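Example record

One chain of 148 residues, shown exactly as stored in the release files.
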Amino acid sequence: MELRKLSGEDRELIRNLFRDVFTHEPWMDDWSDEVQLEAYISDLTGQSNSLALGFFTEGKMVALSMGQIRHWYTGTEYVVDEFCVDRAYQGRGTGKAFLGAMEAYLRETGIQQIFLQTERDAPAYGFYLHCGFQEMTGHVSFAKRIRS
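Predicted structure tokens for this chain:
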């Protein structure tokens, strides 16, 4: 398997894998609005500090991470906004291998930490714990809907 830094040329690969994973269990997100999906992917991949990584096997992208590089007081970190593994490759060690390759790549580029959020009742929660992530018990996320 091979880790690759993704670019705008990989937009279709990104869109297809992202939509396939997140429109099915356990997420069930509605990404049928093409304009909204394209804008979201552009938000995550088109900024000066964006970093999108893909994990490939036999030319096929089987895992994806999209986020941003942030210069924090504790050092430079990779803030992961989206992380997913092709449904056919889940439960087979692909996600763990992808994270390992990501960590090696990030370490080589001087990044000291990975930060991400997930839902406590999602399968990803246990996956991240298993991969050595520590839950930030003092951290709270807030959201407020301002338009109905």
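Notes: The domain at 2-130 is CATH 3.40.630.30 (Aminopeptidase).
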